[in-house]
């Protein structure tokens, strides 16, 4: 089956059009104000309208309040909520119940023990995303261009669709997919020419490398 590809942190038409044209399956909008990739919900809605149905729209949040989710969704329709903070399984269950939407839980991975959390989240998560743990004291809980040991995921039975993330680039994504046995990948920094600025050529190269990985 073809590898799913998510391009995260899209903020402008160049990046959005390049991701859709390249065949990205999911487009990520970062609704976390401290991120250099933060996008206003109205701008995300305007971008999505460029290619209706072209890719699934993922909204990235970090420990969001219900009011933030409600206000964002009122402004910008989304297909999946990505939760990239310290949300608990109970919080995921509450968000799913209130908003009736699929939820993708991001888990930080440094050692095999970090994957134990999958069991607790599986009943309430529709998807998983595995990212490197953020550097201590860093400003962002993700999007840090930081890889982790991909082989920790090799041969693991993850009971939901999942994406591998963290420091992926057009040059390493095929190897990462093979090492982890990943059914999907997610990238932000690796397709940027400057922090927060997506590069169409890098997006095309990343999607081609990921889709071509065997
Ligand atoms: O991208 C961000 O700014 C971000 C902010 C807060 C939480 C998560 C964020 N990004 C996610 O992290 C992965 C990995 O990023 P990278 O490729 O290593 O830069 C990214 O794909 C987003 O899902």
Automatic annotation (TrEMBL):
Keyword NAD: no
Record key words, sorted: Amino-acid biosynthesis, Aromatic amino acid biosynthesis, Isomerase, Tryptophan biosynthesis
Top-level taxon of the source organism: Bacteria
Keyword Isomerase: yes
N-(5'phosphoribosyl) anthranilate isomerase (PRAI) domain span: 5-208
Main EC class the enzyme belongs to: isomerase
Catalytic activity from the UniProt record: N-(5-phospho-beta-D-ribosyl)anthranilate = 1-(2-carboxyphenylamino)-1-deoxy-D-ribulose 5-phosphate
InterPro entries according to UniProt: Aldolase_TIM (IPR013785), PRAI_dom (IPR001240), RibuloseP-bd_barrel (IPR011060), TrpF_fam (IPR044643)
Biological-process GO terms, alphabetical: L-tryptophan biosynthetic process
Pathway, per record: Amino-acid biosynthesis; L-tryptophan biosynthesis; L-tryptophan from chorismate: step 3/5
PANTHER family in UniProt: N-(5'-PHOSPHORIBOSYL)ANTHRANILATE ISOMERASE
Membership in a protein family: Belongs to the TrpF family.
Protein name (Swiss-Prot/TrEMBL): N-(5'-phosphoribosyl)anthranilate isomerase
Organism this protein belongs to: Neoroseomonas alkaliterrae
């Amino acid at each position: 089956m073809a590898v799913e590809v998510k391009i995260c942190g899209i903020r402008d038409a160049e990046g959005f059009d390049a991701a859709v044209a390249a065949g990205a399956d999911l487009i990520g909008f970062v609704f976390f104000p401290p991120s250099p990739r933060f996008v206003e919900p109205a701008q995300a809605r305007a971008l999505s309208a460029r290619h209706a149905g072209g890719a699934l729209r993922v909204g990235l949040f970090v420990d969001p309040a219900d009011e933030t989710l409600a206000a964002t969704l009122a402004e910008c329709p989304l297909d999946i909520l990505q939760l990239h903070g310290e949300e608990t399984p109970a919080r995921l269950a509450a968000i799913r119940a209130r908003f009736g939407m699929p939820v993708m839980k991001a888990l930080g991975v440094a050692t095999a023990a970090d994957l134990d959390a999958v069991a607790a989240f599986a009943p309430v998560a529709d998807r998983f995303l595995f990212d490197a743990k953020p550097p201590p004291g860093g400003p962002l809980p993700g999007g840090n261009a930081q890889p982790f040991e991909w082989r920790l995921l090799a041969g693991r039975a993850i009971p939901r669709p999942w994406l591998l993330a963290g420091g992926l680039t057009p040059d390493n994504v095929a190897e990462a997919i093979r090492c982890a046995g990943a059914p999907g990948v997610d990238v932000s920094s690796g397709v940027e020419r400057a922090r927060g600025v997506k590069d169409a050529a890098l997006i095309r190269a990343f999607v081609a490398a990921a889709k071509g990985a065997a």
